[in-house]
Amino acid sequence: MSVFKAAVLQMRSGIDPDENARTLTRLVAEAVEAGATYLQSPEMTGMVQRDRAGLDARLKTESDDVIVATASDLARRHGVFIHVGSVAVAVEGGKVANRAFLFRPDGGVGATYDKIHMFDVDLANGESWRESNTYRPGDAATVADLDLPGGPARLGFAVCYDMRFPQIFRAEAMAGAEILTAPAAFTRQTGEAHWHVLLRARAIENGAFVIAAAQGGRHEDGRETYGHSIIIDPWGRVLAEVAGDEPGIAVAEIDTALVADARGKIPNLKNAREFSVLDATGSGPVSSAAPASSEAAE
């Protein structure tokens, strides 16, 4: 069990990673002053840039990225966990990884996660996205342990569009995650429709905290993001939220005893069963689904 303060850092990242690093430094200082020991920044903390040529002009490898270096230094300087929601990093084959980082209080990397699901969609009013043209998707979900002064806690990773794929969150919860995360650069259009309901659903169906730092407002590259960075408890209650789309922070106390309480009241992780989907025309099973091992969740 663990009790600690968590913070979401809402940003409006532009096309200059150095400027975004300065914003991150300021928001981290505010959150640490408020008592947070786990701090989360949004997806694409280092650069929001939809133009591929513009992205390539400033793209770095993980070892040379300014946000990676800055977050490592801030974690060490303040003695806190800093979860960078993601940065774009150059990988082999001319592709880019949308990669999350968890930095320990000693500044070392505790975990990384590459966004699995690519946002390839056509929305209303001509808004269209093809992340797979630029980004290489990840192929593994990730959980990591937070060794906090108030006790240990287990964290599960996701990024933005991943939140529409509940199987990731379920698998991480079954692997013992008490805190599920979804840092994002959610579009304004989809955020107004689905942001709160999706995140609250992920919390309720897994009996877990959900923490989601977000980008907000109109960015230099022309996109608009929804904001409303949020922390939700295992019963689906909103504990803290950055109202609107302006940069800022929100802080809430996390008590992982509430996870055990929620899962005890509604033990759906334990009650999950293997099943098949049958074709009613009589041609037999068309698919099957088996729950992950419930050992950790129990």
What this model shows, in words?
The protein has 298 residues and is of the alpha+beta class. The chain folds into two domains: 3-266, Nitrilase/N-carbamoyl-D-aminoacid amidohydrolase; 267-298, no CATH class. The chain has seven helices and 18 strands. The chain has helices spanning 17-33, 52-58, 66-78, 166-174, 188-206, 257-265, 268-271; strands spanning 3-10, 38-40, 81-90, 96-103, 109-114, 120-122, 128-130, 143-148, 151-156, 179-181, 209-212, 216-218, 224-226, 230-232, 238-241, 248-255, 275-279, 284-289. The strands form five sheets. Strands 5-4-3-2-1-16 form a six-stranded mixed beta sheet. A hairpin with a 5-residue loop joins strand 12 and strand 13 (224-226). Helix 1 packs parallel to helix 3. The two termini are 14 Å apart. Mean pLDDT is 93; it is low at 294-298.
| Count of distinct structural domains | 2
Number of helices: 7
CATH domain class of the largest domain: Alpha Beta
Termini gap: 14 Å
Structural class: alpha+beta
Strand-residue proportion = 25-35%
SSE arrangement, N to C = EHEHHEEEEEEEHEHEEEEEEHHEE
Please name the fourth-level CATH homologous superfamily of the largest domain. Answer: Carbon-nitrogen hydrolase
Shape: globular
| Low-confidence residue ranges | 294-298
Lateral arrangement of strands in the main beta sheet: 5-4-3-2-1-16
The average pLDDT value, as a whole number, equals 93
β-strand number: 18
